[in-house]
Structures are given as structure tokens and as C-alpha cells.
């Protein structure tokens, strides 16, 4: 009706604009009375639009009292029940005289009885509805009553009828809830697969299906589900979950491709490039991130990636070592991670760039992790370079408790060199 009101206003404005001094006025013309009903309906609509449901309810209730039209009572009763407002008892009393003539009023009365846990009255009213009206909501209401009575299988039966007539997410979620209570995961899965096939994914239903596939470790199906969920929500977490699956299956290239396809977090891209030993690209991206943010962590990573790239086929030459050391020099402080401190320190020692300075950085690392075999080995190598072979061997001996480390190629190389140095001293 409010649309009629708007039409009247627009028409009057148009006529007013056209009217002038010379426009004839009919003698019997009388101004139209304001349509107060349309005006009240517009106010109710505005109240509902802005979530002021009590305001809207009161307008509908007043309209019912003034006009006696049942639809206003229905709307007032509905708003009170759906938004837990006051006056539901009063409205239920007013509705009683329409129970046998209005299916809508009867359904609202069922909801009222349910909210007050009067299951006997609710069931009686629904059974009357089911005899005379095939509306899907009646089956859903009966399912709600049976659920309250803990008759789960019977409730599911009526929910299925309602869903078959009017498939929607809300009804599907009620069925999923019962399948969960019955611990009938296979039936839930069958229902969700069929729903996805016929109606497509919804965010909630396919989230349930993805959980089932995840528990089954059915990664093939999960791939499609996660991509669909992402398209529905644009939530990167679904793509990150898919990348985690790819990594678990050792499909690192697919993980990297996905990260670049959807332009995911740059830190993730660096991690995936590193995992694939694409150190050149990891370095390139790290340098871009450094230029953008001036965060020196990115420069330190770029230095490591440069050295690791050069190490893939053979030991890097002195020029590479100097280039890497220059980046470290620009970015590192003793507050950095011990991994970086040892990496830089060992580089300076191994390439004779500045052995004493290198040992200082290794000692900074050892202050944070005193028993780290790698750092002890680096310091031992520093003492070896300074010809203090006895001290070097004492430090190296501390690493022998770890058989795996002691048998590594680098440790064996150091053992051999330091032993030879000790023999020369004798």
C-alpha cells in the first residue's frame, strides 16, 4: 500500500508543477485527504528496515485495532515472536478467535506454544494444519516439535518432507543437526553430496561436507570443495587449507601455483619458493619486499637465498660470498635470530673475510643457544682458522654426542682438518 502513497505524492507534485495562474480550477475540486493507512505502513516499513522491530510491531498492532484487518495482527504477532518482543501473550489471546480460519495465525500460535514449551498444544495445532494444508512449513514445525520431544528419527522424517517441497539452507542445517545427533555421518554425507550436486554449495553446508572429507582424508574431493568455498566467501583461509593439503601430499608446485594464482601472502610465496629450492625467485621476491617495507628481515633472507642458490651445484666462489656478506652487513644486528648470526659468522670465517668478526657473531648466536652443535662447530672452525687447533678440537668434541651431526660431511671435514692441525703441532 505504501507504494500507492508514493504514487499519490509524485502525481500531486507533477500536477502542482504544471499548475499556474492561468490554469483552470474546477469548481467541484476538493483536496484529497491524506491516506493515513499508507503513511502508517510506510513508518512500519522504515522501522523494520532499521531494525526497530518493536516500533514496527506497535504500528501493526495499532492498525489491527483500528481496522480489524487480520494481516496486521499476523505481522505484529510474527515480529513479536521472531524478535522475542513483549506482548506475545496478549497477541496470542487476540489470535485465538482466528485459529480455525487462518493457517498463518495457527502457525504463529504453534511457534508461541513452542517458545513456552507447551508441546501438547503445539502438536495438536500442527496436526490440524497437516490435515488441511500442505504448506512445507507445517512439516518443518512438526519436525521442530518432535525434535523438542527428542524423537530424532521422526523429526528427520518430517524435515525431509519439508526440504523436498522447499529446499533451502535453513532446512538443510536442521537435518544436518539431527544427523550429527544420531552420529549418522554416512547419511549426512550422502545428503550433502546430493544437495551440492542439485543446488550447489552454500557456505555452511559445504563447510560441513569439507569436514567430513577432511576426516576421511579424501583430499581429492576437498580440493574442489575448498575452491568452491573460497569463491563463495573470498576467505583466503580456504586456499591456505588447500595449500596445506598440497604440501602434505608433496605437491609443492601446485601449492606454489595456487599462491601466485590467487596472489596470496608474499611471505607464503617466499616459503613455498624456498621449499622448492627456487632460491633465485625467493631472493628476487625478498628484495622486492625489502624495497617496499624496508624490513631488514627480507634483506637477510635475500642474502641466505643468494648463497643457497649458488650452493646448489658447488661451493660458491669468493665473489658470491662477498656479495652475500655485504647484504648481511647492511641488515644484521646482534639482536637478530641466532640462525642469521651463525650463518653470517660462519660465512666470514669460512671465506676468511673477517675471522674474528665472524667468531663474534657466532658467539652472539651461542649466547642465545649455548648447546647448539652447529654454532659450536662454527666457533671451532673459527679457532682453527686462527691456528688455535687445541681450542678448536675442545669445542668440536662437544658436538660428538650427536652421532648424526658428528657423521655429517661438514663435521667430518672439520674433524679431519683440525686433527691434521693438531698433528702438525706435535
Automatic annotation (TrEMBL):
Keywords for the protein's UniProt record, in alphabetical order: Signal, TPR repeat
Coiled coil region boundaries: none
Highest taxon of the lineage: Bacteria
Signal sequence region: 1-19
Residue spans of the TPR repeats: 136-169
PROSITE patterns to which the protein is assigned, alphabetical: PROKAR_LIPOPROTEIN, TPR
Gene3D superfamilies assigned: Tetratricopeptide repeat domain
The name this protein goes by in its record: ATP-dependent nuclease subunit B
Organism of provenance: Campylobacter vulpis
Amino acid at each position: 500500500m505504501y507504494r500507492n502513497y508514493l504514487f499519490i505524492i509524485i502525481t500531486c507534485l507533477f500536477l502542482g508543477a504544471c499548475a499556474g495562474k492561468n490554469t483552470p480550477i474546477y469548481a467541484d475540486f476538493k483536496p484529497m485527504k491524506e491516506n493515513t493507512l499508507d503513511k502508517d505502513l510506510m513508518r512500519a516499513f522504515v522501522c523494520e528496515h532499521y531494525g526497530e522491530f518493536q516500533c514496527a510491531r506497535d504500528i501493526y498492532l495499532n492498525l489491527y485495532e483500528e481496522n480489524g484487518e487480520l494481516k496486521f495482527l499476523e505481522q505484529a504477532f510474527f515480529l513479536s515472536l521472531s524478535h522475542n518482543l513483549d506482548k506475545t501473550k496478549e497477541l496470542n489471546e487476540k489470535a485465538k478467535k482466528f485459529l480455525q480460519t487462518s493457517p498463518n495465525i495457527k502457525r504463529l500460535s504453534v511457534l508461541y506454544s513452542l517458545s513456552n514449551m507447551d508441546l501438547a498444544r503445539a502438536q495438536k495445532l500442527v496436526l490440524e494444519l497437516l490435515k488441511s494444508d500442505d504448506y512445507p512449513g507445517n512439516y518443518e514445525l512438526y519436525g521442530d516439535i518432535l525434535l523438542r520431544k527428542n524423537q530424532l528419527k521422526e523429526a528427520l522424517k518430517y524435515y525431509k518432507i519439508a526440504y523436498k517441497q522447499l529446499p533451502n539452507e535453513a532446512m538443510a542445517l536442521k537435518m544436518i543437526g539431527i544427523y550429527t545427533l544420531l552420529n549418522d555421518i554416512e547419511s549426512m554425507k550422502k545428503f550433502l553430496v546430493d544437495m551440492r550436486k542439485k543446488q550447489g554449495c552454500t557456505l555452511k553446508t559445504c563447510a560441513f561436507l569439507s569436514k567430513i572429507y577432511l576426516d576421511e582424508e579424501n583430499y581429492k574431493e576437498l580440493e574442489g570443495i575448498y575452491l568452491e568455498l573460497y569463491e563463495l566467501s573470498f576467505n583466503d583461509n580456504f586456499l591456505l587449507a588447500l595449500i596445506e593439503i598440497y604440501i602434505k601430499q608433496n605437491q609443492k608446485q601446485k601449492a606454489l601455483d595456487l599462491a601466485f594464482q590467487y596472489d596470496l601472502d608474499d611471505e607464503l610465496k617466499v616459503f613455498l619458493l624456498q621449499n622448492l629450492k627456487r632460491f633465485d625467485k625467493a631472493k628476487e621476491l625478498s628484495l622486492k619486499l625489502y624495497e617496499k617495507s624496508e624490513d631488514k628481515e627480507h634483506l637477510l633472507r635475500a642474502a641466505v637465498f643468494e648463497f643457497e642458490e649458488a650452493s646448489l651445484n658447488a661451493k660458491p666462489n669468493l665473489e658470491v660470498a662477498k656479495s652475500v656478506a655485504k647484504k648481511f652487513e647492511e641488515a644484521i644486528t646482534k639482536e637478530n635470530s641466532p640462525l642469521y648470526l651463525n650463518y653470517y659468522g660462519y660465512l666470514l670465517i669460512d671465506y676468511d673475510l673477517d675471522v674474528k668478526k665472524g667468531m663474534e657473531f657466532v658467539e652472539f648466536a651461542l649466547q642465545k643457544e649455548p648447546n647448539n652443535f652447529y654454532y659450536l662447530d662454527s666457533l671451532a672452525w673459527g679457532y682453527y682458522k686462527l691456528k688455535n687447533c687445541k681450542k678448536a678440537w675442545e669445542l668440536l668434541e662437544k658436538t660428538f654426542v650427536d652421532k648424526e651431526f658428528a657423521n655429517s660431511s661438514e663435521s667430518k671435514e672439520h674433524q679431519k682438518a683440525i686433527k691434521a692441525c693438531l698433528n702438525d703441532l706435535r
